[in-house]
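Typical record was shown:
=====
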Amino acid sequence: GRLMVERAKFERCSQVPGGIEAFASGIEGIVKEFHANRKSGLSLGAVRIGSLLARVLDLCRVHGVEMDPSMASIVVSTLVLEGLGRSLDPNLNL
């Protein structure tokens, strides 16, 4: 989370007391949730990558951390591919 703030071209969370820590804590929670879910396997049905990425985008919006446009394109592409993959075979192991 801190690295995202440092690399962002624009961010507001450093102007708010505890903003960087709150953003980093939110990102840490998302990563921990992913690793906890990963133990049951990396099938499209078990791990909701789109949901996790949506939460990252929401954290960026709430804390005013600008995401690189190329990363935003990757997020959108991942959401589309996950939806397509889930419709074809939700048990596909990644």
In short: The chain is about 65% helix and 0% strand. The mean pLDDT is 82.
